[in-house]
Amino acid sequence: MAIATGQMQTLSLKEESTYGTSAGGNFLTVEHNSNSLALTINQLEEATLRGTREVNELIAGTHAVAGDIQANLSQQATHITLIQAALCDHTAANTNQFSIAGERKTYTFAREFTDMGSTDDNQLFLGCEINTLGISVPADGFVGVTYGIIGSTMTSHDSSEDGDATAVTAKVPYRGSDATIIVENAGGSSSTGQTIITNFELNIENGLENSYVVGNNKSTQGALGKARVTGSFTAHLTSGDFVARFLSATDTRIKLLLGSGATGMSFEMPRCRFTNTATEAGGEGMIECAVEFTALQSTDAATSCITFDSAL
To answer: What's the domain range around 19?
Structure first.
């Protein structure tokens, strides 16, 4: 009996032309470190009184897919596609720069356990969208990215459903040492990064939820919620600047650059507001300041709260 192992599992995706229906054909490989995609079926307990304390029957109810895909972030085509999906911006005319928009696309994810050699070892997750995006930049190590998935349903198959999955072009993952983080007054254009930040987190939430109608146990494509872009970072405490920005509600430009040139990417938030700062002193070590922030649209609504540049 073969036991499935993580290193022999593959994941690929393809855009759907109809929500919740696989487009078939060749998928695109998703290079990743882990995934937790799973189908949940709501179980309805039949509650007729029968003179016994035991559960008599369960009826399968509505379907929902959820889970995370975690990877080392690089400038691979799949990452650019998924980041665009999180922003809901697929405007071809933008070329490399994308912001918060409202153009949704759904995807089928194909997961295959290649070492099982048995039936039902291929899974299709249908009607999937990127509900959340999280990027983590450590002082030492790879830059991580987590895509939070929400979807309609899952089907199981005996044979591969991803066609001849197209392998992505190998790209070196970004590392913390490749990153530049700019924190300055809104309206600035500095390219000089902070030298005291020890960790940086960026999050996008789309507020997607599964939606159901009478006569169908699969979800329909629910409404797109408000996009909330938030983040946090920790830094060595060398001045009171960050605390002062918090106290005075100073509009602040924050820009994360990863790599450089044609193989680099950036996330720029021209108007951020610090929502919390905290400093803790304990022992003899260095004191750090923890900062939380929210990115805001420009006051005239002309500039998005975040712009993703896929090639610097």
So the answer is: 9-43+60-309
